[in-house]
Amino acid sequence: MAAKAVKITTFAWEGLDRRGTKVTGEMTSQSLALVRAQLRKQGINPGKIKKKSAPLFGKGKRIKPLAIAFFTRQMATMMRAGVPLLQSFDIIAEGVDNPNMTKLVLGLKNEVASGSTFAHALRQHPKYFDDLYCNLVDAGEQAGALETLLDRVATYKEKTEALKSKIKKAMTYPIAVLVVAMIVSGILLIKVVPQFKAVFQGFGAELPAFTQMVINLSEVIQAWWYIILIGLVALGFVFKHFHQKSEKFRNFLDRTYLKIPVVGGILYKSSVARYARTLSTTFAAGVPLVEALDSVAGATGNVVFRQGVLQVKQEVSTGIPLNYAMRATKIFPSLAVQMTAIGEESGALDNMLDKVATYYEEEVDNSVANLTTLMEPLIMAVLGVLVGGLVIAMYLPIFQLGSVV
C-alpha cells in the first residue's frame, strides 16, 4: 500500500533576529510548530506566523518538465559532492522560486525521512516522474550507485527536453505563418474591402470577376463571422477531444505527421534520437535489454516507432540480435542499425547508442535551423501573395477605368 503523501504548506512569518531587527520571510513546512522550531534554530525569535493564502486564480506556477530535469541535475551534483540525500532536498527547496516545486521537493524529503526509498517517494508523484525515471533511480539505489544513475538520468532528461524544445520550434513556425496570414487577410476583408466596395458602387460598371469574388468573400465573412469563429472554436474542441480519447485518431496523426514534407523528417530523426538515448541510458544502468525496450517503446513519441520497438522486443526475447531485429522493422535508418551492430560486437552497445542519439539530435538541430531559415522568405511570400492579391483585386476596376478613359 502506498504511503500517504505529506501535506506541505507555505507560511509567511515575522520575527526578530539576534540584533533585535525585524525580519520577514516565507517557509514551507508541514505545520506551524515546525516553522517556529526551524526559525529558532536560525536564531530568529518568531512572532506572527500565518498560512500564505492560495493564488486567486489557479494554483500558482505549473511545474514544467525542464524544472524536473534541473532538479535531477542538482540532485546528481550534490550526491557526487557527498551531500546527504535529505540535506540535498533542503538545499534545493531553498533555492527554488516556484512554490509548487518547493512543495514537491519537501514532500519527497518527508517521504524519504519517514523510511521510504527515493524511488518509492518518486512513484508517489507519477505526474512528474514517469516509470522510466523511477526504475532508473530504483536500479541506482539497489546497486549502491545512486549518484551515477542520477547523473545519467539528469543527462537523459536534459537531452530529451532539449529535443522536445526543438520539435516545438519546428512545429510552431508553420502554424505561426498560417495564423498571421489568416489575421491579415481577415482584417483586409473586414475593414479595407468594404471601403473599396462603396467606391465601386458609384462607377455603375460591371466589376472584374476577381474583384467581385473578393467582395463576395468579404460580404460572407462580415455576415457570418461569428458562425465561422464558433465553427473554428468547435473544431478545436473536437480535435482536442478525439486526440485525448481516441487512440486510433492519435495513431493516424502520428503516421500523418511523418509524411509531412520537411517537418516529417525532423519528427522521424527525433524519434530515432529518443529511441537511442532512452535505450542507451537504461542499458547502461544495468536494466536487461528486453525490459529496457518496454520503457523505450513509450519514449519514442510516435506510434510507428512504438510498434516497431515492441516488434524488436519480441524478436530480441527469442534470441535474435538487436541490430537484426531493428533492420527487420524497416523503420530504423541504416546508420543506426550499423552502429548498433558494432556496439553489440564490441560489447559497448550503450556507448554506440549514445553516439547514435547525439548524431540524430544534432541532425534535428540542423534541420530546425534550416527550416527556420526557409520559413522566413516563405512568410514574406505567403503574406505578399495574400496582401498583393487583395490589393490587385481592389485596384483592377480603377486600372480598367483608366484604360477606358
TrEMBL record:
InterPro entries: GspF/PilC, T2SS_GspF/T4SS_PilC_CS, T2SS_GspF_dom, T2SS_GspF_sf. Its main location: membrane. It is found in: Cell inner membrane. It is a multi-pass membrane protein. The keyword Oxidoreductase does not apply. The keyword Cell membrane applies. It holds the Pfam family T2SSF. The chain crosses the membrane at residues 173-193, 223-242, 378-398. Residues 71-194, 276-397 form the Type II secretion system protein GspF domain. It comes from the Bacteria. Keywords: Cell inner membrane, Cell membrane, Membrane, Transmembrane, Transmembrane helix, Transport. PANTHER family: GENERAL SECRETION PATHWAY PROTEIN, PROTEIN TRANSPORT PROTEIN HOFC HOMOLOG. Belongs to the GSP F family. This is Type II secretion system F family protein.
